[in-house]
Amino acid sequence: MNGTVASTGDRAGSVAVVTGGGRGFGKSFGEALAAEGAHAVLVDRDGAEAEAAAAAIRAAGGSATGYAGDVTDEARMAAIMAEAAAAQGGIDLLINNAGLHSDEYSQPIAAMGVAKVRRLFDVNVMGTVIATLAAKPYMAGRAGANIVNISSSAAHMGGTAYGTSKLAVAGLTITFARELAPEGIRVNAISPGLILTDTIRNELPEATKVRVKAMQYLDAFGEEADIVEAMLFLSSARARFVTGETLRVTGGMAAGI
After folding, report:
1. Would you tell me the crossing angle of helices 127-139 and 161-180 to the nearest 10 degrees?
2. Considering 67, 105, 138, 162, which one is annotated as catalytic?
3. Residue 162 catalytic?
């Protein structure tokens, strides 16, 4: 995050909860939202990372708090949402970003085994359900309230349990868009393609990066900022008539009807 955060930005007075907020996309989402004046509530299994990310936002002049919480823990998520809403006056935005996504979860289902597949779906799918239901009472009726889920280009390409879990997230986006519309809550999702986060830069073999880029229409690598910008659009008043949609940010890799 660059510079000092003003309290008069486009999101001044709003409250944004980001799961998986201690690192990666989640941390960047929190920084970007705080830069526009929102109070960022960062939730992560690693409470120390969540608090460190929140502290960095505060040091830059923004407003943020960090919480330790696993999205599969229904009671803990309910408690976090209640506490954050009580402290800040409600919740305006929920970003369901927490998820399992390493190579470990992109293996054949038979090789992964039932326990690992169950854990994958507990976090990626049920975690989205649990966090959404926990936040709903504090979002209902608030002008501009909305939810952004994080799916994946793997959802549109098939072939892995991880991709199937993210396809379920895209499906939940449609379901919750319908169910929460009477409460005035929009629900959308983002499907990132190959994005050169620090982890991907360091861990993904160069040959794999080149192979995936060759599947895209655009001859460029995606950057974390591309996903942040998509989030800022979908969660803003500029997207007031957009709900139930999954925005593919893939350079064309996952394009299709």
Report:
1. 20
2. 162
3. yes
Using CA atoms, how far apart are residues 202 and 159, in angstroms rounded to an integer?
25
Name beta bridge partners: 68: 44
Using CA atoms, how far apart are residues 218 and 151, in angstroms rounded to an integer?
21
Distance CA(77)–CA(132), nearest Å, equals: 9
Q: How confident is the model at residue 9 (pLDDT cuts 50, 70, 90)?
A: confident
Query: Is-contact 154 211, C-beta < 8 A?
Result: no
Closest CA to 21 of 41, 3, 1, 39: 41
Domains of the chain, earliest start first: 15-249 (3.40.50.720)
Integer Cα distance of 204 and 252 in angstroms: 20
Q: Based on the number of CB atoms within 10 Å of its own CB, is 215 exposed (0-12), middle (13-18) or buried (19 or more)?
A: middle
**What tokens appear for 65 in the block?**
């708090």
Sheet (strand 186-192) strand order:
63-68, 39-44, 15-19, 93-96, 146-150, 186-192, 246-249
Tens of pLDDT, residue by residue over 225-242, are: 999 999 999 999 999 999
CB atoms inside a 10 Å sphere around CB 65:
22
Structure pTM?
Answer: 0.94
Provide the H-helix boundaries in the chain: 24-35, 47-59, 74-88, 109-112, 114-121, 127-139, 161-180, 198-203, 206-214, 224-234
